[in-house]
Write a structure and sequence with these properties.
By secondary structure, the protein is α/β, with parallel strands linked by helices.
Length: about 325
């Protein structure tokens, strides 16, 4: 963690911007540092935006950000944070991964926002984890790196590597680090400047709670949906789901119709297809492997269900701009 590294003067932090990075995550990380300096009345932190080649980098929202230098300059920094977003695998070049390994050997603490952990994992720098990343990218990451533990937490901080889910969670992580280095009073004051009424802990979950997402507090319904979400690769039978909630299949069907407006089967299939789309668009898994990973017995069955749900076939979805394997 950058707060544990002795340094005379402002603590320098580098941000390596990966093309299509999340500007929300980047600014959520930088702005608390700026405000901490202002409230302290002296420079506690300094920061530099870097790119691999020193050229401006385009964020996922189309903004082009000027940088202060190249990745070569990161060796002089105690901390370097990778800021990524969509399709980090497009930018995992051998020179970049080798450079990250050299920085780690040189003692630079490496962090990652959003999907930046993908590059650290490809470089072999995260060990067994745990790490965290944006929940939407989690399924593809787990498929590619099954031996790395992934948590649902907002951020994970280890002695040499720290990771963050991105978005506004980057602000919570920086507030936590500011508090550790300069005291909780300053962290709270910075938080209040952003009308951020609570500094979330690392173990706060990324997503809304299941009751909030489903707009239902029915415990039996929630038990069934949790079981569905935990068993996407090998779907459970209706009788098994109902038994988990200690209700009959007919009671379960009435409950789903009443609270969600769909049958249990339709809701379960939607969950599997949403997971399938995340795997399809955020990994290079073959379509048949995506089908098997989400409980479909054959590619043809999967393709028909996918097209009915999303309005286009899995292969056509991958041809759209934005897929990590799409040609520019």
């Amino acid at each position: 963690m950058f707060q544990n590294i002795a340094h005379v003067g402002p603590q320098p932090i580098g941000f390596l911007l990966i093309p299509k990075f999340s500007s929300m995550a980047f600014f959520s990380a930088v702005e608390p540092l700026r405000v901490a300096n202002r409230l302290a009345g002296k420079p506690l932190f300094s920061w530099r935006a870097l790119s691999v080649d020193g050229e401006p980098v385009e964020a996922s929202n189309g903004m082009r950000i000027m940088v202060d230098g190249t990745l070569d300059e990161a060796v002089s920094l105690p901390t370097l944070i990778l800021v990524a977003g969509f399709d980090p695998a497009l930018y995992e070049t051998r020179p970049l991964l080798s450079h990250l390994r050299r920085l780690s050997r040189a003692g630079v603490v490496l962090g990652a926002l959003d999907t930046g952990v993908h590059l650290l994992a490809k470089a072999g720098l995260v060990g067994a984890g745990p790490v965290t990343l944006h929940w939407e990218a989690e399924p593809a990451f787990i498929e590619e790196f099954p031996d790395i533990a992934v948590s649902e937490e907002l951020f994970e901080i280890g002695p040499r590597i720290f990771t963050c889910a991105g978005g506004t969670a980057a602000m919570d992580m920086m507030l936590y680090m500011i508090g550790r280095k300069h005291g909780s009073a300053l962290a709270v004051a910075v938080s209040e400047q952003f009308i951020h009424d609570r500094i979330r802990n690392a173990d706060d979950h990324q997503r809304m709670t299941l009751p909030a997402r489903l707009h239902s507090t029915n415990r039996k319904l929630l038990a069934v949906v949790r079981a569905m979400e935990a068993n996407l690769e090998q779907p459970l039978e209706s009788a098994e789901l109902a038994a988990l909630a200690k209700i009959t299949v007919r009671q379960m069907e009435r409950l789903f119709r009443k609270d969600l407006g769909v049958s249990p089967g339709m809701h379960y299939r939607s969950l599997r297809l949403e997971r399938a789309r995340a795997l399809l668009l955020q990994s290079d898994m073959a379509v048949i492997d995506v089908a098997f990973a989400t409980g479909f017995s054959a590619a043809s069955v999967f393709s028909r269900a996918y097209a009915a749900h999303f309005g286009l076939s899995p292969r056509d979805d991958r041809r759209r701009p934005g897929y990590l394997g799409a040609k520019a």
